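pinned: reference chain
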Amino acid sequence: MKKAAGLAVVCAGVVVTFPLLILIELIGRYDRFSYGRHAPVIRRFLPWRLTTYLAPLLPLYALVPPYVLGLAHSWPGGGPLRAVVWAALAVPALALAEVYSVCLHREAYIAAFEPWSLAAGYAPLGAPPRRFADRRLQHLARVQLLHCVPLVLAASTVGPATGLLSCVTLFLFLIKYLAPAWIDFEAYFHWDMHCQVLDLRGRPLLTAFWRALSDWVMGPMIGSLPRLYATEHIVIHHPENAGPDDIHSPLPYDRSRVLEFCVFGLKTCFILLTSGKVAFHRRCRGSRKALLVLGVTAFWAVTAYLVVMDRFLGYWLIGTALYRAVNTAKAQYVWHGLSDPADPRHPKASTILWLPREHLVAALDGDPTHAQGAEPATEVPSFGTDWAFYDNYHLIHHLNPRAHFTEYPELLRRTVPGLLDWGCVVMRLSAYDTFVLDCWSGNFERVAQSLVTPMDKDLRPAFIREGLAPLPGRRSYSAALCEGRVGRAVDSALVRGLLLVAPPA
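pinned: its structure tokens
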């Protein structure tokens, strides 16, 4: 009976998680298309200030097709003419979605890498930030709200009954919003949990208002249920450091096998869609538990109402919650996939530090400029060396969870020599994007080449394989059922499918 239940979990994991993995990769490719040759042209001809307010309104175009097609239905000429009208409406939808996406990416790029473009007195959230550097992350929150409100309005109006073209058009905009907004939300919401980057000087009510908007409006639009991320991350993840008692711990699974990831992904979907293991965790109590239960209940009540009313937003909220759950599971592999079974609860044993080469050189040389030329130590990283305000310094973050992101260059400079001496896992950032797929496809040589931790080259592949092995005594029963001949065959087939969609760079 237990084995049958375990096999059912494995099958359900493949059915739910693997298609979402494929979808995540396809959405990533569609998002990267917005960095193509047309992007500089759009940026050149559309002024920044103008598109700041006009680009968020473009999704409202999804409301237009039903009226035009309804009018065309009464025109003479029959089906062929209506097909021409349908195509004439679809082409602008594709073009407007690209304009929308390029403008949204530009706002994130300015916040991350060109903050000097923002006026010194700029108050993104309606009042001066408590710290000057925080206006960059506050700018991301402002941009997300501007783009989110028209999306919510359109998705609350459009439904399957509205027509196929409206649904497809709106889906284009939602996908274009999801890919960058997922990262931007993680940046400002995550840093606000740790060092209150949304604080406004002398305006506690306005601060609380923006936090509520972030948690209850922008979060659900990218798959984050209200109060769940804020509770799980602070109450469980950081105290446990992704160790064996962390509800998102990947340690009970063989991280070199995509089939076992499907089981882990299914578990993560269950947690992030129900909050069950969070709400009943021993550390979650009092007002935290009450607000969490309220947030999750409100999310599903609103979602159910929208689905019953046949509104596109209801289906979107369910789909994007699943999307974020699998992305979260994958992120655990990227940041906590290699572990030392001798002390799995310590961040130095379970957390990977991803470093661009220039940051590593600067840290080991004791260079206070942190690879930024003649400038003094600064909170602005070089383009291409960072994901979200030094979040790739994940081991530094777990060792100093309350540090402000502006402190990370100096923390790295002081800490990284000792981390290397202690044998912590330090990897080159160039391998970040391919790390998970390399582990699943058995390309341990390429992973080993990116290992900075001092070690003989011959020992590195074995070190990587050992670090990916499931934690003894904590093995997932369902995942263990994947070890036989059939499991290996299914795993190989899944890897081949992924390689077809996402061939290694």
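why pinned: Residues 368-378 have pLDDT under 50 and may be disordered. DSSP finds 22 helices and two strands in the chain.
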